[in-house]
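Technical annex, item 7. During the second reporting period the consortium partners agreed on a shared format for inverse folding records so that results from different sites could be compared directly. Each record opens with the tokenized structure and is followed by the designed sequence. A conforming record, contributed by the partner at site C, is shown below for reference.
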């Protein structure tokens, strides 16, 4: 098995032109979240386990909620300091992951897998949208992802499906008149450090 980085999801953005571009990504995700999750996961197998990183964030909370609605065994990956104010459902399993330390990250994942088995699906929703400098963007959005994948491979816990949440900023401005959906055949043309 290997990692599945899904890029061609059958969803169309529903975006109001009254919003500024800075809000487009959030609106896109909220309008299409259920479609994204429904497309990626096979809901007939209700015992599948899903791990959601960045579960304590704005989008992460909605992903956890949607997965629970669909009957999945949901694991929320959080930091020790992450607020769980909106993660109160008793069905949620929590795992604390420290992406800043590869050793601790691998150890925590290994312990969880040994206790409950590996996850069938992982939604990697961890990322930074605002940073003081580009180095921080690179560390959080790129290096943390690499450490995560390497840790999963090390403990032989590569999931059946790996969905990486990203940003439309990776593709650049795009068609802001007709909102033509991006496809995997389009060439990324990020115009911000966040998109990079």
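Designed sequence (site C submission):
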């Amino acid at each position: 098995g290997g990692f599945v980085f899904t890029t061609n999801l059958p969803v169309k953005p529903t975006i109001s032109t009254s919003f500024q571009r800075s809000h487009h990504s959030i609106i896109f995700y909220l309008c299409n979240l259920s479609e994204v999750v429904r497309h990626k996961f096979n809901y007939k197998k209700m015992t599948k386990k899903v791990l959601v990183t960045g579960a304590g964030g704005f989008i992460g909370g909605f992903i956890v909620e949607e997965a629970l609605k669909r009957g999945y065994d949901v694991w929320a990956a959080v930091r020790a300091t992450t607020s769980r104010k909106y993660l109160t459902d008793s069905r949620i399993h929590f795992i604390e992951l420290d992406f800043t330390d590869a050793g601790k990250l691998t150890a925590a994942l290994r312990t969880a897998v040994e206790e409950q088995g590996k996850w069938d699906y992982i939604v990697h929703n961890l990322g930074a949208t605002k940073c003081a400098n580009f180095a921080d963007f690179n560390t959080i959005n790129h290096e943390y992802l690499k450490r995560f994948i390497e840790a999963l491979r090390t403990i032989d816990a590569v999931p059946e499906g790996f969905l990486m949440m990203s940003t439309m900023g990776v593709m650049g401005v795009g068609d802001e008149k007709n909102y033509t959906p991006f496809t995997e055949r389009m060439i990324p043309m990020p115009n911000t450090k966040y998109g990079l």
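Residues 1-34 have pLDDT under 50 and may be disordered. The first strand starts at residue 49 and ends at 53. All partners now use this format for quarterly exchanges.
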